[in-house]
Amino acid sequence: MVKYQSDTLDHIFSALSDPTRRAILARLALGETTVSELAEPFDMSLPAVSKHLKVLEGVGLLVRERQGRLHLCQIDGAPMREAANWIGRYRRFWDTQLDSLADYLERSNTNNRKNPSGGKNG
Amino acid sequence: MVKYQSDTLDHIFSALSDPTRRAILARLALGETTVSELAEPFDMSLPAVSKHLKVLEGVGLLVRERQGRLHLCQIDGAPMREAANWIGRYRRFWDTQLDSLADYLERSNTNNRKNPSGGKNG
DNA sequence: TTGATATTTAACCATTGAGTTAAGTAATGG
DNA sequence: CCATTACTTAACTCAATGGTTAAATATCAA
């Protein structure tokens, strides 16, 4: 039984896994705007978008500044840093010329099954 | 109506949003291993882990090399590149000195609007 | 006050996701 | 052959997610 990692990471990745939400963030990257303007491009109801905004707000990717009846929304990328850091730890598995690990293993490793206690990758 | 972005991104982020799956990847980063060894640390049934592996395999983050009745699993980070690229586009929203937009607002604004919706604890 | 505008909340529904147990498949070895 | 080992598939439950419509809230503007 292993102790689980940060569950904010769960929520950040989960928030980013929805295309509508990513599109909203893309729009927000251009500058702050209102809920209805955010909703406009999508073929879905306003409440649906409202929920998406709530999710983004929940993980801190979106910040609201209410101005009368308008809700001005801005992006806050800070939570993405965590995600980026996590993914970054796996950079060596994709950022090199050895795209797939298979290549790497083929070259560096004759036959070390299982625990690579003498492992040199790092 | 806006055209959606890559739906592989959906699946990659979704795959990464599960802590069990991330833990599996972490283990895999240490070297290839079998299904049962991957399953061992978790307090869940083998079929449950099997499903997780299938998800990871589905997005290409895991590669199997069957060897008799053992399924040797390796990580393939390649799909993460896409996720990293996507997140990277938002780097300016977190990599700068203005860490969180909240700080910015706090300074430039009346600081009364901190927790607008307040719904859940988060 | 009345009505329109901006947005959320509530209640509901269908689909998906993560887990379960039980059964099935395939390779190994006495 | 038969049992064991390694793993998957099937069938099911339960909770969460993403959408809906209808109603509620709050602000602006006559």
In short:
The structure is a homodimer of 122-residue chains. Chain A is mostly helical.
Could you name the key traits of this structure?
DNA-binding, 10% strand, 47% helix, 122 residues, 6 helices, homodimer, two-stranded antiparallel sheet, disordered C terminus, mainly alpha, Arc Repressor Mutant, subunit A
Structure description:
2 copies of one chain form a homodimer. Mean pLDDT of chain A is 82; it is low at 104-122. In chain A, strands 1-2 form a two-stranded antiparallel sheet. Chain A has a domain at 7-79: Arc Repressor Mutant, subunit A, CATH 1.10.10.10. Chain A is elongated, with a radius of gyration of 20 Å. The first copy, chain A, contains 6 helices and 2 strands, in the order ααααββαα. With 122 residues, chain A is mainly alpha-helical. The first copy, chain A, has helices at residues 7-16, 19-28, 35-39, 46-58, 78-88, 101-108; strands spanning 62-67, 70-75. At the A-B interface, helix 1, helix 2, helix 4, strand 1 and helix 5 of A face helix 1, helix 2, strand 2, helix 5 and helix 6 of B. Chain B binds a DNA duplex (30 and 30 nucleotides) through helix 4.
